[in-house]
Amino acid sequence: MDGFESNEGVILVSATNRPDVLDPALLRPGRFDRQVIVPLPDVKGREKILEVHMRKTIVSQDVDGKVIARGTPGFSGADIENLVNEAALYAARLGKEKVTMVDFEYAKDKVMMGAERKSMVISEQEKRITAYHEAGHALVARMLPGTDPIHKITIIPRGRALGLTQQLPIDEKHTYPRRFLLNSISILLGGRAAEELVLEDFTTGAGNDIERATDLSRKMVCDWGMSPMGPMSFGKKEEQIFLGRELAMHKDYSEETARRIDTEIGQIVSACYDTAKKILSENLQILHHLSEELIKREVLNSEDLDAIISGRALPEQEKTEDSEPIH
């Protein structure tokens, strides 16, 4: 930006996380005409940020920054700082002199999945339903090729959820192929499919899964051109300029096209649901065994899941989430 004198310049630096709602007058040449995008850190960036924040605390020799960085996709620098603080607080509550890998695992689960609600009273019937629901998610995810590996399955209530199945990607993803998205929808519907097969009834526990699956299939049809309708985009979003909030979807297609869109979305969801049911039907005994172990132990990791699928006996362990670090 020009200063008051011809030989004097003023450089003004500003930051925002919503560049889409800035007044166009601010972005004219000669004003904020240099834009530097600062994305979320990748796995190497997270590892370096983690090293910076771990200097403030005493960590054990077993703490592996690479493992922690790989298990925290999508974390910002502030999220990583919060992770280290939570791990240090948990270690202090246990009277430890050093922060171990177990403490980081506990902190990561708390930050990503919410705090445990072990005091919440759950009936045996609800516990059984939750176990089959999460087992359905995990088994479908394990049997479908090319999906993110299962990291942890738990029926301990966290946040608003009665149970959770957590997947962690092996590497950073920036684009998603159509098959990966279809498999993701099948995994989301795996819990509902397990309820139908075993309980012969439906519960409200699959509400969020169904919403996410429908939203993903709608984006495949309307935004990404991943349907027989071809590479076309349907619907323009109208946003309020100051709030940056989507208020309405401008309908730029006919009623006939709207019916075709609804049909395509329904066919994608139905096909993925049938895939989930087929996988669970073919592995019904494994589903029963997995659910029984979940009810007994409350938490299973990827090694436990592989052992159950292969028919091996699980080692005896205490019924606690942080009994040992998961690598």
Structural notes for this entry:
The protein has 2 domains: about 45-115, Helicase, Ruva Protein, domain 3; about 125-310, Up-down Bundle (Methane Monooxygenase Hydroxylase, Chain G, domain 1). It is about 50% helix and about 5% strand. The protein has helices at about 45-55, 65-70, 75-95, 100-115, 125-145, 180-190, 190-200, 205-220, 255-280, 285-295, 300-310; strands spanning about 150-155, 165, 235-240, 245-250, 300. A hairpin with a 6-residue loop joins strand 3 and strand 4 (about 245-250). Helix 5 (about 125-145) crosses helix 7 (about 190-200). The longest helix is centred in the last third of the chain and has 28 residues, at about 255-280. The radius of gyration is 24 Å and the shape is flat.
Query: Under CATH, the topology of the largest domain is which?
Result: Methane Monooxygenase Hydroxylase, Chain G, domain 1
Biggest sheet character: 3 strands, antiparallel
Structural class: mainly alpha
| The CATH homology group name of the largest domain | Peptidase M41
Low-confidence stretches: 319-327
Helix content: 40-55%
- CATH architectural category of the largest domain: Up-down Bundle
| Strand order within the widest beta sheet | 2-1-5
Number of domains: 2
What are its keywords?
327 residues; two-stranded antiparallel ribbon; 5 strands; 2 domains; 6% strand; 11 helices; single chain
SSE topology:
Elements: H1 43-54, H2 65-70, H3 77-93, H4 101-113, H5 124-143, E1 150-154, E2 164-167, H6 178-188, H7 190-199, H8 207-222, E3 236-239, E4 246-250, H9 255-282, H10 284-297, E5 299-301, H11 302-310
Antiparallel strand pairs: 1-2, 1-5, 3-4
Helix pairs in contact: 1-3, 3-4, 5-6, 5-7, 5-10, 6-8, 6-9, 7-9, 8-9
